[in-house]
Amino acid sequence: MSLIIFSYLCFLIFLGAAGARIYKQKRLPMHLRSEIYPVQHEPGTKVQYGGSYMEEPNWWEKERQTSIWNEIKYMVPEILLLRGLRQNNHHLWRLSFPFHFGLYLVLITLGLLFIGALAMIYGVIISSKAGFWASFLYYLTILLGFAGLTLGTIGAGGLLIRRFRDPELKAYSSLGDYLNLIFLLIFLGVALLTWLIHDRAFAGARAYIYSLLTFGQKSIPYATERTILGWLTIFSGSIILAYIPFTHMSHMFMKFFAYHKIRWEHAPNFKGSKIEQAVLTNLKYNPTWSAPHIDGDGEKTWADIALHLPKEKK
Amino acid sequence: MKTILSPADISKKSPKLVHLEPEKLPQLPPPYEDFNKMPIPELKEERVAKIETSLDDTVALGIPKPKTKEEEERYLRAFLSGLQKLFEEKNNWTFLQPLLISMEHCAKCQTCAEACPIFEMSGRQEIYRPSFRSEVLRRIYNKYIRKGGKIRAKFTGDIELNWTTIARLAELAYRCTLCRRCASVCPLGVDNGLITHEIRKLFSQELGIAPKELHEKGTLQHLRVGSSTGMNPEAIKDSMEFIQEEMSEIAGYPIEFPWDKEGADFLFLHNAGEILAWPENIGAFAIIFQAAGISWTLSSERVGYDGVNYGVWYDDIQFARVALRHAEIAKKLKVKKIVLGECGHTHKALTVSADRVLPGDLNIPRESSLVLLDEIVRSGKLNLDPTRNNFPVTLHDPCNIVRLMGIVEPQRRILRKIAPKFREMEPHGVDNYCCGGGSGFALMSSYNFLQWRTLVSSRKKFLQILEAFKDEPLEIPKYVCAPCSNCKAAIREILEFYKAKERSHIYYGGLAELVVNAMADMKKPIIKFE
Which residues of A touch B225 (CB under 8 A)? Predict the structure, then answer.
């Protein structure tokens, strides 16, 4: 029961910390535009060569078009296959791709275990001998879980060794960078061992999700005791979950802001728009920059300072 | 395993952190091999005795060395105070969100490094790696600004903050051209160019430290006198009279320069430096606008006749002051729009960056002159004969116009129509390389900075230009079309320094000149290969 409480706690820490990060981003003031082209939601052929609406004469008189389809066409291979890294850093991609793809498969496996545990709550047994869908779920979980854990372990181990051995990575790596990979390697490696030695059908893993969903009840089809390796998998997995939002690994959800709110954020400011309202709000800030040509005293607004020439030198 | 400099090494006192050896830089092909042994000239001891020179072989800022321990302490306190302000909404609403994203999510995968022409052309010197200076700032921020900094530093990477650290960091912020090619390849959206910009801003807005060419002779002079060239309204009108005469001779009929024409279709905001260095560029625009029957005007009001905005490279307040003056002048003239001349940072500053500084009536539409030229060329209003441009032409893509604004095709459509021997550089478009003069470098020439720039930061562009013309005989004239003042200044230095005019007959100029050169009814050619 204490392990279940620990997992709940880690999940809550994840939700709280990730939520706090996202909330902080959402309430930041609107920044100056600093887009980089290609902006992937530009329509038609513009996205292929990196063009923008500013290529059109009198662009402000025309309805601005965006293409969600172009964005999806870019984002799917970027997320699933790490296309950008493959193009620009192929050497690292050979390790980073199995690592990330392995983690995606592990996440999908967790989703499948969740579905399986829900089915168990409604009395459906997930096994090789059950009906079509239950046995499909049974085999798919094994296939994706095994593939995910194997790829993830190889990738994490490879990235860790690369970080230790490549001088260009090592010179910039901190203890935190190593710990990120070590924690993930421990979780993935232990989970793989657990699968190999004790839990080839992921029945123990599914039973644990069942316990989480039922606040501690043991599932009937899996009544055996938890092994040390199983315990270690759950413990390290829970820790990782709680740890992610405090590290740069939070890019798994913060990349949204990096791309959609900065790199591709090029909405123009029109009279009477929300953007103009935000501009007016920002111009009321009271900066305190100390250089003589600014002399921010915390009382003058940003607009006051910008509308007046700097003081003459004496 | 070889060891390389790490970000923490920036704090270790030594006469010089890095020395560039010419043999280790990427080599130039024939007939330029003699430059492969050329070192960056040594700084003259008597000139640099009192300033900080401990970063590398050159100096951009020339920060005076503190005379006392107390002065050193004051610098450190001011630096930390400025760093704190970078992360406050009231002080840095302009770039807080991009800065936080870039500070918190770097995976140190070094993908950015392969995209950086300065890092590559320096022979992979660590200090020029895009993530080096970002990591220095990140470590200082984590240790000295964030809560629990000393413990945090054990996990996020330690660094010592002393005078050497900040003096070197200030200089290092001026070893990047802010081309943001590194940011365009970052898989996580981290922008090392933006971090460099923020370091520059910290030093300018809190400590009052910025290159003289950008601040005192740049934005301050621009705002006080009217132009960063130092020209007042009378001087600019005098210069334009000479250009008017010359253009009338080329056209064979009188060319008009309309001044302060209220209600014109647009205010043409041109770089005043061009009026001195490349008068034919604004002259070519005047010829084109007149031939196309367009209503336009220039402004003779202070600031209004110089479109540059150096603030965009180092200081948000100075940037906003210039942008607001430009908008006020356009508003007073009651024009429908502002058209930006061939100047990359002018384009980006007023169209993109200022878009979220200009409210209400000051938010006057802004358009690129490349877009307007394309519209005019396509309209058929000009009688064009492309055979008049029957020489090899290649196109340089200014980072600010192309990668940072997405204006890629209009200039190409024009060239395909008027330059039969047009060929691309590789890579081009949004993947282009900077001219090496970006972010103010083209204006900076104190000490030996000009030689550093030409040997290191412009080296990639020179190699690209040579590659574009490699199949052409050396003796025939070739034209590098660079529709940006800053880029033209950098390319001028490249071609002069490497003697490319003498050895390969490579010339350079803008896009408007090529259009006029193709106009069949011009009495004389505007482009002269001499």
Answer: none
Is residue B266 classed as helix, strand or coil in its secondary structure? strand
**Which class for A129: exposed (0-12), middle (13-18), buried (19 or more C-beta within 10 A)?**
exposed
Residues 114-173 of A with CB under 8 A from B: 165, 167-173
Q: Does A182 touch chain B (CB under 8 A)?
A: no
From the CA of B246, how many Å to the nearest CA of chain A?
A: 30
The answer, for A177 touching chain B at a CB cutoff of 8 Å, is yes
Report yes or no: B381 at the A interface, CB cutoff 8 Å. Answer: no
User: Residue-wise pLDDT tens for chain B (530 aa)?
Assistant: 667 999 999 999 999 999 999 999 999 999 999 999 999 999 998 888 999 999 999 999 999 999 999 999 999 999 999 999 999 999 999 999 999 999 999 999 999 999 999 999 999 999 999 999 999 999 999 999 999 999 999 999 999 999 999 999 999 999 999 999 999 999 999 999 999 999 999 999 999 999 999 999 999 999 999 999 999 999 999 999 999 999 999 999 999 999 999 999 999 999 999 999 999 999 999 999 999 999 999 999 999 999 999 999 999 999 999 999 999 999 999 999 999 999 999 999 999 999 999 999 999 999 999 999 999 999 999 999 999 999 999 999 999 999 999 999 999 999 999 999 999 999 999 999 999 999 999 999 999 999 999 999 999 999 999 999 999 999 999 999 999 999 999 999 999 999 999 999 999 999 999 999 999 999 999 999 98
Closest residue to A248, CB basis, from B105, B184, B402: B105
Strand order in the sheet with B266-269: B296-297, B266-269, B337-340, B366-368
Burial of B1 (0-12, 13-18, 19+ CB in 10 A): exposed
**What one-letter code names the amino acid at B187?**
P
| Candidates A46, A177, A282; nearest CB to B108 | A177
B interface mutation test: which of A75, A87, A180, A262 has the most B CBs within 10 A? Answer: A262
Contact between B363 and A271 (Cβ < 8 Å): yes
Q: How large is the ipTM?
A: 0.96
Identify the helix (H) or strand (E) that includes residue B329: helix B316-333
Q: Other CB atoms closer than 10 Å to residue B521's CB: what's the count?
A: 12
CA distance A115 to chain B (A): 31
Structure tokens at A114: 């969740």
Q: Does B94 touch chain A (CB under 8 A)?
A: yes
8 A C-beta contact, residue B444 and residue B214: yes
- Contact of B151 with chain A, judged by CB distance below 8 Å, is answered with no
d(CA A68, CA A38): 14
Inter-chain touch B206–A285, beta carbons under 8 Å: no
Question: How far apart, in whole angstroms, are the C-alpha atoms of residue B132 and residue B110?
Answer: 10
Q: For residue B37, what are its two tokens? A: 């042994």
DSSP class of B15: S
Q: Give the number of other Cβ atoms within 10 Å of residue A133's Cβ.
A: 12
Query: What whole-number distance in Å separates Cα of residue A252 and Cα of residue A262?
Result: 16
Contact B218, B205 (CB under 8 A): no
Contact between chains at A35 and B97 (C-beta distance less than 8 A)? no
